[in-house]
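User: My collaborator sent over this chain with a note saying "see what the structure looks like." That's all I know about it. Can you take a look?
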Amino acid sequence: MEKVVVLGLIFSILVAGWILATGQWAYGNVVGPLVNNSKLPKLEITYIDAYNTPQGLCLIMNITDIDGPDAYAASAPLMEIYNANHTFMMFLNSSQISNDTVKIIQAPWNANKKDTVNWYSGFVVILGSEGQFHLLIKGVHLTPGKYYVKLYTPAISTGREAVASFTITS
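Assistant: Without extra context I'll predict from the sequence alone. Here is the result:
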């Protein structure tokens, strides 16, 4: 073999060893699983109110993303409304959330970040921002009592889901 080829092989073996060694040292991914310390999003409902109207249920929620990656927004493509004893349960998927949202008010401190809804992701909330979402769920009239809203975020355990309660008085 030529001298240049031998030096090239030795250099490539050293580089490959360096990559494997630093990967094992930093992440443990040569022997053992790759560790991903990325944060998962966590939505929180900071305010909720609801009341019956002649058209249906008006639901007002302030939703914020309190934890997670800054690179992309958190979403909640599924919302559940249920009463305290689970005799009433209702689910809204992302397209229903998008269709029933009649107004979104941005918090003053995040005017440059736009929380939104869409047919694919449902509620879309950017890290550190807060939006007030007004929903009019047509044809739904709740009887007086205590109800809960749960927002389901993909890849999140049920203990980290956003849950809030509201009361219908009349």
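A starting point for your reply to your collaborator: The helical segments are 3-27, 94-100.
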